[in-house]
TrEMBL record:
The lineage of its organism: Bacteria, Bacillati, Bacillota, Bacilli, Bacillales. Residues 9-247 form the Carbohydrate kinase FGGY N-terminal domain. Keywords: ATP-binding, Disulfide bond, Kinase, Nucleotide-binding, Rhamnose metabolism, Transferase. Belongs to the FGGY kinase family. Transmembrane segments: none annotated. InterPro entries: ATPase_NBD, FGGY_C, FGGY_N, Rhamnulokinase. SUPFAM superfamilies: Actin-like ATPase domain. This is Rhamnulokinase. Residues 274-467 form the Carbohydrate kinase FGGY C-terminal domain. It holds the Pfam family FGGY_C.
Length: 500
């Protein structure tokens, strides 16, 4: 296949919004264009939080039809989403009920039961995943405990991107990068963990066949081809976890990727860390194999699969969710603030006269929807810190807290791996907040290389290009580097960060 005029679709579905993105590949470069953006969020059904899958599907179809009508024949389509959530199909291949949202609280009552059978440390050694109430293994255990009848009616479990790929193609498969977030696979994400399934009495038959990122599943269902006017475009299981897609887009400098073995380095090689910055912040670096040390577990790191078979050693940090929820609270109070206005307030704040508190972004107080400014006030009172009084002070507290959290995580990565982090690649929508990028450089003392903004969509696209045979896998990041111009932030000497 030549490299002229290839057009394909990346559907990038986040926890707060989704986008249908057109990718165009020509002359060795990728360009992306937003075709359709739509909101996403939980819906409450009978006191529990769910995803409105049918509405999301309609939004995706609207974007696909618009792209086909505007640009003509498309080669392929792939969906990437957040991790851990899933839908259950019955023996007719139909959804049993709307998939639960990871912030639903049904797991709280069963966590102690699960962890008695499978303690967190053993979960980590077996699967590489840090234990968390939101993990698929906790959710599935809670579902089967709360509704034993599911054992007789549920036939397959499909993670969210797998579910949409199934809706589009009729082919059910378990893509490895998304399943690597589940707590149900072995540590290298190649097969289900028999020990986990046995200990928790989870049915192995729920797990479809595992496929690597970049697998062509089939073609768009004929009825959908006719409905959407697309022709027979291919459905590809790409790097279906949005962080895996984002990391696939990182245009590492030559020699800085840092995927050498953790053990046996003589001398240890420098490595480039990454921060995928959005509603969640994922801070980590790539390794050739999972890192299962006691130190990694104690520091809260998890291991997930990358496109090409490498490993992501990373920590999940509650990211711009704090600011998003704060802005939502202000909007509901009749005082809306755009992202640009919020950034300007924080930049123009006289830091020497401000009441700035340092928050732990992962404190449980901040984990669920609610009045975030009130929760920040409560946290400050609990921790004996000054309460931010103005909107600018609240925003600045959030951004500085994130930067300091990133810095602490980078130091932990260096200690665990024995490698010096040479620079930090920040990708994702959060890098549009230039102050956050600069604060991160200042807090870490590392150069921050920011870009691309559309990391998940671009990573999704280059993985599809490898599946189509348009490029070879080792070329994917060079394609991104030719296509995007990063912004570099140098650390500045600053006196406003709290002592470490």
């Amino acid at each position: 296949m030549g490299d002229n005029g290839i057009k394909l679709l990346a559907i990038d579905l986040g926890a707060s919004s989704g986008r249908v993105m057109l990718g165009s590949f020509a002359d060795g470069k990728v360009e992306v264009e937003e075709i359709h953006r739509f909101p996403n969020g939980p819906v409450e059904i009978a006191g529990q939080l769910h995803w409105d899958v049918q509405q999301l599907l309609q939004e995706m179809k609207q974007g696909i039809a618009a792209a086909a009508g505007r640009y003509g024949p498309l080669q392929s389509l792939s969906v990437d989403t957040w991790g851990v959530d899933y839908g259950l199909l019955d023996d007719q291949g139909e959804l049993l009920y709307a998939p639960h949202h990871y912030r639903d609280q049904r797991m709280e009552g069963i966590a102690s039961v699960l962890e008695t059978a499978l303690p967190p440390g053993e979960q980590f050694k077996l699967t590489g995943n840090q234990s968390s109430l939101i993990n698929t293994v906790y959710q599935l255990f809670a579902d089967l405990q709360g509704n034993p009848g599911l054992r007789g009616t549920a036939r397959q479990l499909l993670m969210m991107p797998d579910l949409f790929h199934y809706m589009f193609s009729g082919v059910a498969a378990a893509e490895q990068t998304i399943w690597s977030t589940s707590g149900l696979l072995n540590a290298d994400s190649t097969v289900p963990s028999e020990e986990v399934l046995r200990r928790l009495e989870l049915p192995a038959e729920l797990i479809p066949r595992l496929v690597p990122a970049g697998t062509v599943l089939g073609e768009l269902r004929p009825a959908l081809q006719e409905e959407l006017g697309t022709g027979p475009l291919k459905i590809i299981a790409g790097a279906s976890h949005d962080t895996a897609s984002a990391v696939a887009s990182i245009p590492y400098d030559s020699g800085s990727v840092g995927t050498g073995r953790i053990s046996g380095l003589n001398p240890p090689q420098p490595a480039a860390a990454f921060i995928s910055c959005g509603t969640w912040s994922l801070v980590g670096l790539e390794t050739t194999e999972p890192v299962l040390s006691d130190e990694a577990f104690a520091c809260g790191f998890t291991n997930e699969s990358c496109f090409g078979g490498t490993n992501r050693l990373l920590k999940n940090i509650t990211g711009l969710w704090l600011l998003q929820e704060t802005q939502r609270s202000w909007t509901e109070a009749g005082e809306p603030l755009t992202h640009q206005e919020a950034a300007e307030l924080a930049v123009n704040l006289d830091r020497s006269k401000a009441d700035i508190a340092i928050l732990d972004p992962n404190d449980p107080l901040f984990s669920t929807p609610g009045d975030m400014p009130l929760r920040i006030e409560s946290y400050c009172i609990r921790t004996g810190q000054p309460v931010p009084q103005t909107r600018a002070e609240i925003i600045r507290s959030i951004l500085e807290s994130l930067a300091l959290s990133y810095a602490g995580t980078i130091r932990e990565l260096e200690a665990i791996t024995g490698r010096t982090v040479s620079c930090i690649h920040m990708v994702g929508g959060g890098i549009q907040n230039k102050l956050l990028c600069q604060l991160t450089a200042d807090a870490t003392g590392k150069e921050v290389i920011a870009g691309p903004v559309e990391a998940s969509a671009i990573g999704n696209i280059v993985v599809q290009l490898t599946a189509l045979g348009a490029i070879q896998a080792p070329e994917a990041r060079r394609v991104v580097a030719r296509s995007c111009t990063p912004v570099r932030y140098q650390p500045a000497v600053s006196n406003y960060f709290y002592p470490q």
